[in-house]
Amino acid sequence: MDMEVALALYKADQSQWKQESKDDMATKLSKQMLYETFPQLDREVLMEVFCAHGNSFQQTLDVLVASTGQESEQVRNVFSPEARLAQEKALLEKAKQESAKNLELCNPPLIPDHDDYTKEQALSDADYYRAEATRHFELRNECNRKAQEAHNKGIYAVASYYSQVVSCS
After folding, report:
1. pLDDT on residue 138
2. Is residue 127 over pLDDT 90?
3. Helices (H), 53-155
4. pLDDT in tens, 41-66
5. Which residues contact 26 (CB under 8 A, 6 or more apart)?
6. How far apart are CA 167 and CA 144, in angstroms?
7. Which pLDDT belongs to residue 42?
8. What phi-psi label fits residue 111: left (phi over 0), alpha (psi between -120 and 50 degrees) or beta?
9. 144: three-class secondary structure by DSSP
10. How far is the CA of 3 from the CAs of 37, 123, 127, in angstroms?
11. 70: left (phi over 0), alpha (psi -120 to 50) or beta
């Protein structure tokens, strides 16, 4: 069971890393193109609309053209269909290369590929991860206990805080 907890912690760390690295090359270029296409709009507003449409440049562009009243030809002439397809392919290729590079740099192998990796080292690694999982488990239980105590005392803000700490870990 301890190994399962350790594996779950490892997967949680990996998914957190993936969520934090959403700002890839394609997203950066899309933002830059939106800034250049709509210089009169506030950058925060542009980013809110961009995020609301799932970081899709085309959907954001369509919505902004419709809502700002700009003629669609003015904006459409910025990119011809052929140029847009070529640019999308280039953006996808750059994004794939960047994400592959990030994965290589940030994903340590699960099992070290040392030739001299002995059984004792493997067991010590397992013990370490087991102890780490136990520590996280105890911290989670302690936060649950504190949240329950605060709730029973009627201190709901503190109870909410400890509940959030438990759900984030």
Report:
1. 94
2. yes
3. 57-68, 72-76, 81-106, 119-153
4. 888 888 888 878 877 888 888 888 88
5. 91, 92, 94, 95
6. 10
7. 84
8. beta
9. helix
10. 52, 12, 9
11. beta
Quote the tokens at residue 120. Answer: 């004792």
Q: Report yes or no: 99 and 20 within 8 Å, Cβ to Cβ.
A: no
- Over residues 61-70, the pLDDT tens digits come to 888 888 877 7
Question: Are 166 and 147 a contacting pair, CB within 8 Å?
Answer: yes
Among 39, 34, 3, 16, which residue's Cα sits nearest to residue 130?
3
As a whole number, mean pLDDT of residues 20-38 equals 78
**SS3 of 26-58:** HHHHHHHHHHHHCCCCCHHHHHHHHHHCCCCHH
Whether 77 shows a pLDDT value over 60: the answer reads no
Report, as an integer, the average pLDDT of 105-114.
60
Reading the block at residue 72, the tokens are 């669609």
